[in-house]
């Protein structure tokens, strides 16, 4: 019975936790729960002292009284415990909304006059960044502190060939800043379902990363004009080309528990997100997993929409591996 209960909690925790919190916010609910638990507890004590109730029943009612008292005092142990479950990789599910695939936004080209904004370094030695973007016509914003020493550490690493991008830059680039931002995006967006959650991250990436070709020379570049960035570099500079925005989006979604990938094709790179079969749009299957194409270089592109300039047959999936602990940041 206990195993079944925990299984139900795990399967429905995304719906259960908000419902519990919403109910607890109703005026008087905490007091009613506390008073009910207190009366039940002392009545049980009375019965136990008069040998009308066995000690085993007393032991069962005691945790309920303790948890109710702590909840009354705003010490929410149960919700904290529920959130400690390990999540399996999530797949995006189709939205109830209808996607219009007849309207294709244009992929933007770099604007030489639109340089990335550079925020001043604060005395506490943190880069304070403020990101602003839109989703479904609503403006959103959030702040993020970036440690300059971590930014510089990643920037000093020699770049690797595209076959290793998912391993090195996505899985290997999940710094504390990336994980913190992923949590903030979930709190800011409050998406109704997994489809909107992925769309929200996609809109964030499309808006805050200004398209900019790799410079002709970087000290650690793979070759001339080829310099894939770690997520923290893109977040600090707010600029990059196709692989940089795709790497950032894949890292954020991986931090949220999604099965993400990079989609590589000649001269271009995009995000791949695992989704259920039957969703509209372009997808590529690898190991029985359908990865849906997501364009990250310009605003307006939806999940599964492939730009007409690219051939579906040329798409190559670079799945992001499961995360392993490391001594590295």
What does this structure look like?
The protein is of the alpha+beta class. It folds into 2 domains: about 80 residues, no CATH class; about 190 residues, C8orf32 fold (Roll), CATH 3.10.620. A 5-stranded antiparallel beta sheet has the order 7-8-6-5-9. Strands 1-2 form a two-stranded antiparallel sheet. Strands 3-4 form a two-stranded parallel ribbon. Helix 8 packs across helix 11, helix 9 packs antiparallel against helix 11 and helix 10 crosses helix 11.
Low-confidence stretches: 1-6, 76-87, 95-124
User: What radius of gyration results from the CA coordinates?
Assistant: 25 Å
Structural class: alpha+beta
**Total helical segments:** 11
CATH topology assignment of the largest domain: C8orf32 fold
* Secondary-structure element series: HHHHHEEHHHHEHEHEEEEE
Largest beta sheet, briefly?
5 strands, antiparallel
Main-sheet strand order equals 7-8-6-5-9
**Level of helix content?**
25-40%
Report the strand count: 9
Mean pLDDT: 76
Estimate the global geometry from the Cα principal axes.
Answer: elongated
Q: Can you tell me the CATH architecture of the largest domain? A: Roll
Beta percentage is 15-25%
Q: For this structure, what is the CATH class of the largest domain? A: Alpha Beta
Give the N-to-C terminal Cα separation. Answer: 42 Å
Whole-number count of domains? 2
Regarding quaternary structure, what we see is single chain
């Amino acid at each position: 019975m206990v195993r079944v209960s925990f299984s139900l909690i795990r399967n429905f925790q995304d719906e259960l936790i908000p419902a519990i919190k919403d109910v607890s916010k109703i005026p008087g609910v905490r007091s009613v729960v506390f008073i009910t638990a207190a009366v039940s507890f002392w009545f049980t004590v009375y019965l136990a002292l008069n040998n009308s109730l066995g000690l085993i029943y007393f032991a069962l009612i005691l945790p309920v009284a303790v948890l109710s008292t702590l909840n009354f005092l705003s010490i929410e142990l149960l919700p904290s415990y529920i959130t400690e479950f390990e999540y399996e990789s999530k797949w995006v599910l189709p939205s109830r909304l209808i996607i219009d695939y007849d309207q294709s936004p244009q992929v933007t080209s770099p604007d030489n006059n639109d340089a990335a904004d550079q925020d001043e370094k604060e005395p506490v030695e943190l880069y304070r960044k403020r990101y602003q973007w839109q989703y479904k016509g609503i403006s959103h914003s959030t702040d993020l502190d970036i440690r300059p020493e971590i930014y510089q550490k990643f920037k000093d690493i020699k770049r690797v060939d595209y076959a290793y991008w998912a391993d090195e830059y996505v899985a290997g680039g999940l710094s504390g800043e990336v994980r913190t931002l992923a949590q903030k995006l979930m709190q800011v967006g409050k998406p109704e379902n997994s489809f909107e959650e992925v769309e929200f991250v996609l809109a964030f990436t499309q808006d805050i990363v200004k398209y900019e070709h790799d410079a002709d020379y970087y000290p650690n570049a793979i070759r001339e004009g080829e310099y894939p960035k770690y997520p923290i570099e893109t977040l600090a500079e707010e600029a990059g080309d196709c692989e940089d925005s795709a790497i950032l989006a894949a890292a954020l979604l991986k931090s949220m528990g999604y099965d993400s990938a990079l989609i590589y094709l000649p001269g271009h790179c995009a995000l791949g997100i695992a989704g259920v079969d039957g969703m509209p749009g372009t997808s590529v299957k690898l190991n029985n997993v359908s990865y849906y194409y997501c364009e990250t270089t310009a605003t307006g592109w939806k999940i599964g929409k492939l730009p007409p300039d690219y051939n579906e047959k040329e798409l190559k999936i670079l799945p992001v591996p499961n995360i392993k602990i490391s001594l590295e940041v």
